[in-house]
Every structure is written in structure tokens, then in C-alpha cells.
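Cross-posted from the bioinformatics board.
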Amino acid sequence: MPDLMAPSEFRLALEQAFSGTMAKDASFSRAWATGKLNKQHFVHWATNHYHYIGPFGDYLGLIYANTPDHARDAKDFLLQNMYEEELSDDRHTDLLIRFAEACGGTRAYVQDRSNAMPFTKGLQGWMYCVSGREHFVVASAALIVGLESQVPSIYRTQYPTLINKYGFSEWEAEFFDLHITSDEIHGERGYQIVLKYADTPQLQQRCLQFVREAADMRFAYTKALYETYVLPDLGAWVETEDRQPALVA
Amino acid sequence: MPRIYFKTAERCVEFAEGQEVNVLRMAIREDVDVPWQCASGNCGTDRLVVEEGVENLDPPRRRERARLGDLVDQGYRLACQTYTRGDVTFSWNPDQVGLDASDSDRRGVSDGSDGRDDRGDSDGSDDGDAARAPRSGWAGSG
């Protein structure tokens, strides 16, 4: 077992754990950012995304229940994160459905579980499993560092395309703009919690393992979106355009 | 390397050339005591005055414009909504609270303000509140 890492070393290890499999680099994300998708593809994306992140409050609630009282700052962060997902302003899933409706979809279609890919249901199950069964700091590493902290890097390439190429209004695409900023803070606070409470070599290594696993899950999910919905229309994805520089916090 | 100078806290935070970073994230990461509450652009607790480097900031976002109103024209930005790609200097009132808090709690930034409403309402009235208020705010920030 490796030694306990200092916070700066551990942070770097966490960042490197998902740097090679970031969802922004998956075929579906790249096709989106370069304007290759149509609105029907977006409806499929919104539907699957709804079943992936719709229960995010549930996931956080399970982690909250597993977090001991002495980690009050971690509990408070989880509670605030839940509140912001559901109640602080527009419910985040409602913003997602607003976007789907702007693409020609309906609330009923998006919410119908049978319209989601099997892979999406698997991802949802993985998140319930990690949230409910892993140590709170490992689950926080997986869901907040491994998944939520990636969101700004994904949406910062997709949002300008939605506005400038597809002509969506800022209101229609608010789901993306909101998460570009809010998940910066959620992600950073997630790092702070993990750096503070992963206080044994075993916990640090398990955090790294689950960050890698989370990144793999999201990358594979995003790739599956392309293969299920876009491949029949556009064929295999070939990277032909200049890559955008990484936007890192 | 480019840097964010958090003047009120007398702290300077550097970031790598070519990056574009969220201001509040950098403050939290480096433990700089910028006041903030919701981090979603709703409460306005994290409003900062841009003293230098405005040309390095991204334009105000929809949520930020809605929350700050006229304050945007007075040089304010919300730390949670703002990205910078180069040198910038910010100041703020360390005691400031959310924009929906009571008038008695509202104070200007650390510029010698006399405590008048700093939202830019010329008559100090509350007329602009309804339009800028979120449907429900984070606890403590209105």
C-alpha cells in the first residue's frame, strides 16, 4: 500500500485519475461541440441525461446518510448541493426538460424510463450503488470529483455551439449555463472534502480507484450516446477539427 | 503566470497561462475569504468590484445580469459567475450580504461607502428587488 499522500500530491493524483477519459473528449461531446448533431439527437441526450442525473438528490442523500456527524462541513455541503439541484431556483431537471422541449421533445417522453438506453440505467444503478455502499469520502470522490467536476469542461464547449450555431436562446439553454458555473463550485468543494477526509492511504487509493471508475462510466455512457443515436445518421466519428484548448480550473 | 489579486484579502492567486478560471473556485481552492453563499448567481453575496483587468474577464452571463442589474455598469461582477484568462484585481466589502437582505444589512464595497444601497437604485428604493429576486433564495441570503 502506498504511503499517505500530502494534499497537493493527492489532488494532482485525483486530477490525473480522470484526465485521460474525460467525457468532453468522447465522440458525442465532440460531435456536439463542433455542431454535427441535430435537435432529435439533443432530445435523446436530454432523455438519457434525465435518467442519469435526475436522481442526483437521491445519490447525495445516500451519501449524506453515510456521513458521520463530525464531518459537519461535508454534510452541509451535500445538503446545499441537494438544495441547489432541487429547490434554490428552477429545479435542474426542469431546466433539462425545458431544453428538450425547445428541441421538439416532450416532458412525458423525457421522463419515460423506457426511452433511456440500457447503459444509462446501468450508470444510474452504479451511482445508487456507490452512493449507498461506499464510505462517504469515496462516494464523494466518485460522484463529485469524478463526475460533477467534469461538467464545466463539457458544457463550456457545448453551450456556445447551442447559442451561436443552433440559435437557442439563453433561456432555452439555461441548463448548461447554470451548470458551467455551479459545478465549478460543487467540484471544488468536493475536492476540499475529499482532500480533508481521505485521511488514510487505503481511503486515498479507493478514492482514486472510484474517480477512475466514474470517469470511465461517464466516458462510456457518452460514447454509447453516439453509437446509439448518432452513428446511424453520421457514421463513425472522425476527429477532423482543431481541438479546443483545455479549460481547467 | 496570470494572477488574480484579491485586494481586500491581500491575497494573490496565480494560475497557468492559457487557462480560463472561475474566480470563486480559485478563491475557495486557495482559501481566500471572499464572501459567498449560494454560488449559483442567485444571492449576490459574492459581488466584487473589478478594479483592474476587466478586459480579461468573460462577459456577464444572463443570470449575473439579472441578479446585479445596474451594478454591472458600476463595475461589479459575481465571483461565482465570472471567468478570467489574465491578470485581474478585485475588492469587496468583507461584511456584505446577499442582495435580497434587509436594507440595514446592505453596504457598499470597501471604498468608503456610507452604507447606502449599493445596487445602483438611484433613489435607494426597493423597486428593483422583485425583478432581480430569485423565486426562492438560499437560506440566509434571501
